[in-house]
Amino acid sequence: MIGDRVAGERLAVTIGIICAIPQELSYLLGLMSGPEWDQIAQVTFDVGALDDHPVVLAAAGMGKVNTSVVATLLADRFRCRIIVFTGVAGGLDAELQIGDIVIAERVVQHDFGLVDDGQLQPYQPGHIPFIEPTDQLGYRADPGLIERVRDCLDGFTLPPLSTGAGGRGRPRRITFGTVLTGDQYLHCERTRSRLHREFDGHAIEMEGGALAQVCEAFGIPWLVIRALSGLAGTDSGLDFNRFVNEVADARPGSCCDCSRCSPAIARSSLVVLGRY
Questions:
Q1: Which residues sit opposite 108 in a β-bridge?
Q2: Any idea what the Cα angle at residue 203 is, between residues 232 and 275, rounded to 5°?
Q3: Are 135 and 208 in contact, with CB atoms under 8 Å apart?
Q4: Average pLDDT in the 9-34 region?
C-alpha cells in the first residue's frame, strides 16, 4: 500500500489536504502531478505534487468523526507534517458575504460540553468541569504559521463572485478569525445570531475543530481555510446548492466559485506550508 511505503521510506510527503466533499477536492486534483492513490478505511488518498510540493489529498466526508479518521491516517500513515482543511462553510458574521474567505485563527467545537438545566455549556473536548477541568476553550492555530500565511496572501485578490452564485459585485474578502465546528448543518437564523454573539464566530462548519484536536495530539500544525457559501440561516441550504451547481458548470482551473477559491488559497499557501 502507498501509505505503508510512504511511512517506511520516509518520503517527503509532508502536507495533507482534506476536503469534505468531492466538489471541493476537484480543483486541486486537476492540478496535481504524478498522482498515485491508495484506499484506506473507505477513503481514497491521492499522493502526488502541487507546484512541486509533495501532498496527500483526501475527501473525508462531512462531520467530525470522518475528519478525525482521515487526519489520523494522514499524520500516522502518510507522515504529513502539516494538515490543511479547505472547503466551504456557513457565515456567522452578517458583515461577510458569499464567497468571502475565512482562515481560522481559532476553532471551537460549539456542540461539546455539559448540559445543565436544559442548556449546553460549551467546554473543551476531552474535558468536563469536574473531570480534568481546564480553562482552555478551542484550539488556536500556530501564530507563526498564521502570520506567514498573512504575508503570503498579502496582495492576493479574488475576482467578484458571479451573481448566479450569490455574488453582490464587491471584491471578495479574506479574513482571519474564529471558526465554529459542530455535527449539525445550521439552518436557523436565531442560532446563527446567538453563535456569532457568544463566540464572536466568523464561520461555522462540521470538521475544523476535529482536525485541530487530532493535529494537537500528534504535535503537528494545522490550518483551516473556508469559503462562505452563504449565511448559516434559513436560506443556507438553498445558498449552498446554488453555489455547488455553479461549481459543476465552471471551467476547469477557474477560481470564479467558492468551492474552488478556498482550495486555490490553500495552493497559494503551499510555499509557506512546505517550509514550515
A1: 180
A2: 150
A3: no
A4: 78
